[in-house]
Amino acid sequence: MAQMTMIQAITDALRTELKNDENVLVFGEDVGQNGGVFRATEGLQDEFGEERVFDTPLAESGIGGLSIGLGLQGYRPVPEIQFFGFVYEVMDSISGQMARMRYRSGGSHHSPITIRSPFGGGVHTPELHADSLEGLIAQQPGIKVVIPSSPYDAKGLLISAIRDNDPVLFLEHMKLYRSFRGEVPEEDYTIELGKAEVKREGTDVTLISYGAMVHASLKAAEELEEKGVSAEVVDLRTVSPLDVDTIIESVKKTNRVVVVQEAQRQAGIAANVISEIQERAILHLEAPVLRVTAPDTVYSFSAAEEVWLPNHQDIIEKVDQVINF
Amino acid sequence: MKHVLESVESQFEMFQILNEDGKIVNKDDMPDLSDDELKELMRRMVYTRVLDQRSIALNRQGRLGFYAPTAGQEASQLGSQFALEEEDFLLPGYRDVPQLIWQGLPLYQAFLFSRGHFHGNQMPEGVHAVSPQIIIGAQYVQTAGVALGIKKRGKKAVAVTYTGDGGTSQGDFYEGINFAGAYKAPALFFVQNNYFAISVPVEKQTNAKTLAQKAVAAGIEGVQVDGMDVLAVYAVTKAARERAINGEGPMLIETLTYRYGPHTMAGDDPTRYRTDDLDNEWEKKDPLVRFRKFLEEKDLWSEEDENKVIEEAKDEIKKAIKQADEYPKQKVTDFIGNMFEELPSHLQEQMEEYKEKESK
pTM of the predicted model, to two decimals? Predict the structure, then answer.
């Protein structure tokens, strides 16, 4: 099995689906000869031609509209929004249009679109590049939101997203692109959307997370183990819709929960997770469910982001609180 | 430094074939239409005028929902649609229901659309269209995509969309024409300039003298046409379609027109922003009056023909309303099932809740 970074796994998934299905089109700003600003589409235009892999003019709303229109002609568009902080420019195409296509048309049209976009903090970007805005789209019915935490998941989830006949937002945490390698099969495989994964088994507390915070949670779990606390780590992988079954199963096992997200606290995925837990498993809880999040400011000026971003120490502190409640 | 605005603007002149008296002023561009086709154009305009009058009445009786009146814009709407083929793909704005109907959407479905029933948006087999867009300009960027898809498929067809004068102020307007231009995609972008975006006059939308000239910035062809002259609109559309299919790229077509009625039937009062004088001035340009004169001169149209169409329209409208009344009521459980191809578990749970709620 090959060792790949997450960005290589993403390129591999795109190549796999460009090969598998001639209706797959990959496009966006700088994705052609340049191979994307993070090189996610490196070499794909040379391999598949400009008909399949191409640059767009620099306009996110236009890219969204282009995707919808190509979808109406039977294509399977995989557009890239260069940084997810630019999503405000394409909100109508995503939430107002493609997510509503199947509903609006009474099932006579659909939008088989996978929007790929980098996001996430810790890489010292300028403003509106790093924001965790998954909650914005998770609030919109009709579109799925997927956030992988590993190269293996990235490939399998991206292939599933592209094959899905409904729109999927596929968010790629920039910090994870090249920070480590993992085993990735060279053949094609899929990971079902809407399914969480227990990344680490534990018995005393459940850490529920996604994206880069899965790694902070795993690091916290290792340190907690040294202190004699057995932490289970659940990687949501799809943040909309939530895999409620996996969440509740883990809650019933550990009875204590900390939900970890990189996004600010207000109105986020963590709040959703906690609502599901209290509605479905309140009698299994030994302590309130706590959250580790960024503070409710606008995303940090990059000179302060190491403090602003949640880390494994923050997680350990919250775990202490739920254990000692 | 050379100033070019004035010289660019001066080149956009209104294209016309029939003047207000129904006389041909531009013989060279007269489209090649048979007598039957000319009569069919008139039939459709009369029919659509009746449909508008009946729709307004039905709305006032509480028997229709959302409705955007169309009277005054028949030449612009139907002249352009008449130049389309079945394989063309239509992306209408909310006032463009007539084009959908003549492209094949059954009348009872148009009424269901008005009533907020999803069956009104379910395009029948062979009708290549999406339902009317509500967000101003969103259809423009989607049209670029449909047109690029048509080009990639190698189809001999075009994507056709409509917006109004206000729509040209939206970013999506420019993004749409610019994307289509960059890809030389076969798209026809209509701007039905009826001079008012609800109440705001076109002079307050832009400093541009014409809306057609906005094509220049995107590097595509633009034309301004008399939107009260059905032959002019038809001729321009036909030529633009040919051009697009031959790989020569998209075109922006501004039709100068007027809506006699309010913006929609939801409380707009045009007397707050338009004068009677202006209304009267435009009624003199009326597309039906003008074309009727032209056809009568050629002995192709009579009062009898006109009355026949009116009766036919009224009869079909009555039947379509009955059909809409009899269509199964819209249920929440119908569209829960349309959120995704496969229902996720949270929606399965909610489906059960609403099945129970709707059974009570």
Answer: 0.97
